[in-house]
Design brief:
10% helix; mainly beta; 5-stranded antiparallel sheet
């Protein structure tokens, strides 16, 4: 039997923590062919999405997909993000959250669960360390898109 990934559970837990704490939960997504987001808002193959209850409609966080409706530039869009393409979930106000290694959808699944690391370079971030290689040095690549 294949192991169930902890990633969707961690995403839901961080989402709930952000919401309970009054923070704005955001996800960093590595966009690929399966990801449905407004292309005009994708920069360097990534997009940051605000997934707060006040910014989304019909938000669904399941084990395979994150789906919701949201407005971009005043136009409503249906958003579909495979959980394996989520690179991070964090609170916009303080940067606390988790960083994940996105899975390449064209590669066969690896036998080990995905590595989880703390989001690097953001003040006060706490994370879970797995068997991941050391994080890259320098400034983080997270960009806040409003």
């Amino acid at each position: 039997m294949a192991e169930i990934s902890t990633k969707p559970y961690l995403i839901r837990a961080l989402y709930e923590w952000c919401s309970d704490s009054g923070y704005t939960p955001q996800i960093l997504v590595a966009v690929d062919g399966r990801t449905r987001v407004p292309p005009g808002f994708v920069k360097d193959g990534q997009i940051v999405l605000n997934i707060s209850a006040s910014s989304t409609r019909n938000l669904m966080l399941d084990n395979e997909w994150i789906r919701f409706s949201a407005r971009f530039g005043g136009v409503s869009h249906e958003i579909s993000v495979p959980v394996d393409r989520v690179a991070a979930i964090f609170a916009r106000e303080n940067g606390q959250g988790l960083h994940f290694e996105p899975v390449d959808s064209s590669a066969p699944p690896e036998p080990t669960p995905p590595s989880v690391q703390g989001v690097q370079g953001v003040q006060g971030v706490q994370g879970v360390q797995g068997d991941a290689p050391p994080p890259p040095k320098g400034k983080p690549s997270l960009k806040v898109v409003k």
